[in-house]
Design goal:
Helices cover about 20% and strands about 40% of the residues. It has a 5-stranded antiparallel β-sheet, with helices on one face. It has helices at about 60-65, 75-80, 90-95; strands at about 5-10, 15-25, 30-40, 45-55, 100-105.
Length: about 110
């Protein structure tokens, strides 16, 4: 079973903002986000979800970007350095680095 770290779990007004990091069974880094709310005029909950995926073979570059060394556990590093900041900026840092990633989004 994949280990998951909660990077963010907070409210911004009436919007619940959530962010998790996981290394999946194939070794890819997944950063999954979910924003819930507000309720629209029909009483339906607005939901926005996304997954940023960095392929397993690129994780040494992510580890270096985050200040880690070969052999360091990437999720341990993220948990130590990003969870206390509620994950702020981790996705942006990866996207801005030039490291290739895939992004999937959907709205319900």
């Amino acid at each position: 079973m994949a280990r998951t770290i909660r990077l963010q779990g907070r409210m911004n007004g009436d919007i619940s903002m959530n962010l998790w990091a996981t290394i999946d069974d194939e070794g890819n880094l997944l950063i999954e986000g979910q924003d819930l709310g507000p309720v629209d005029e029909d009483g339906d909950m607005n939901e926005y979800e996304w997954v940023t995926m960095v392929a397993a073979e690129l994780l040494p570059r992510v580890l270096e970007l985050l200040g880690g060394a070969p052999g360091d556990d990437l999720l341990d590093l993220i948990e130590r350095d990003w969870v206390p900041k509620e994950g702020a900026g981790l996705e942006r840092m990866i996207r801005d680095s030039g490291i290739p990633y895939d992004l999937e989004t959907w709205r319900r």
